[in-house]
Amino acid sequence: MRRHILIMLLVFSTLLFSCVGKKKKEEKRATKETSKELDLSKLIMPVPSYSVLKDPNYYIWGASMVQGEDQRYHLFYSRWPKSTGFGGWLDHSVIAYATADSPGGPYTHEKVILDGFGKGHWNEQSAHNPHINKFGNKYYLYFISHVNDDFGKKNETENHRWGQRIGVAVADKPTGPWKVSEKPLIDYQEGKGAEGYMVNPSVCKNTDGSYLMIFKTRSNIPEFEKRMIQCTATSPNPDGPFVISEKPILTEKEAEDPFLWFQNGKYYAVLDDQRGLYTGSHGLALFSSADGQVWDVAKTPNVMKPVLIWEDGSRSKLRFLERPQIWLDKNGNPAMLFCAAMLKESKDSINLPFNVHIPIKHY
Fold first, then answer.
1. Domain ranges of the chain
2. Residue 24 burial (CB < 10 Å; 0-12/13-18/19+)?
3. 16 pLDDT band (50/70/90 cuts)?
4. I want to staple 219 with a disulfide (CB 3.0 to 4.6 A). Which of 155, 224, 318, 321 is the partner?
5. Residue 362: which pLDDT band, with cuts at 50, 70 and 90?
């Protein structure tokens, strides 16, 4: 009997130490993953020739992609007629829809899914800069539009810009049908960090189950009022209502077009550093945050300069590299970078902006 008890104690002790050892290893691995700083610049891969969406009759701009339950890839992008010029995005942009069998394409245009709803609606004119996400069993397509009211600005264009707001369309499938929000997800809120236009949203799910949005705006703080800044907002639901934070973020220098995600215990955002104020050169910049509210430039901030490296080894210098949107794979890792681009020099007589789909290496 005594022998059996000793054997049982020995077995129990072995199991106990095994579990403790396993737990410590898992905690050590988790700590290592959390503390590891992402360096996207090392993961950017050459671009296949087919990973471009362009049209000789349209300006093609920002695009955002989601994988459907059908295992196909669904791309939502801005476009407006060539005849309206580059500035036509403000009043003539629509959101179009394309599909492909692989993340990098080639994508085939299917149809236009969103335009302005006309007078009396918050999204009176145009639909622009889509950002697609799947939360739960629904798809959320965030976008911007505007009303044509008089905000006391110097001209019609500035009045239209000041009337820009963020909305969302919700569907059970990426193919639609889409139900558009009856009101903007955010508007002016007394004492908060945003005033004027509120545009270019990116949304991710917080660890507590709520939702975090980053967007571009202007500030009611005097020293920032003439500067593009970013602000955050939170909501218990992906379709709002969102409450704007009291303090804006990334106010010390200008950048725009944030894309936000959570990975390995940290929040990350890629922005367009057009003037090289954060990285020292025009290109895309990486930022990180422990809580989604206080943001810093990442340890390795340069994501990529405005140069495309193609699979055949050739290079194309870009005039524009904007609207970064990242597709995350099933494990939540960056896998494809979608950007609005335009060649700096081209022998083609039709040198219009296009969307490029840049592979990101798994690490």
1. 39-359
2. exposed
3. very low
4. 224
5. confident
CA distances (Å), origin 181, targets 97, 166, 234, 235, 280: 19, 10, 17, 15, 40
| pLDDT at position 3 | 55
Across 303-316, average pLDDT: 97
The rounded distance, in Å, linking the Cα atoms of 320 and 178 is 31
Please say if the pLDDT value at position 265 is more than 50: yes
Non-local (6+) Cβ contacts of 60 within 8 A are 53, 54, 77, 78, 79, 340, 352, 353, 354, 355
Q: Which residues contact 88 (CB under 8 A, 6 or more apart)?
A: 59, 80, 81
Nearest residue to 231 (alpha-carbon basis) of 179, 206, 264, 194: 194
Return the pLDDT at 220.
Answer: 67
Looking at the predicted structure, is the pLDDT value of residue 36 above 90? no
How, if at all, do strands 94-100 and 73-81 pair? antiparallel
Q: Which residue has the tokens 């609005």?
A: 340
The class of domain 39-359 in CATH terms is mainly beta
Q: What is the mean pLDDT of residues 70-93?
A: 97
- How far is residue 363's CA from residue 348's CA, in Å, rounded to a whole number? 37
DSSP codes joined into one string, 115-169:
----TTSTT-EEEEEEEEEEETTEEEEEEEEE-----S-SSHHHHHHHTEEEEEE
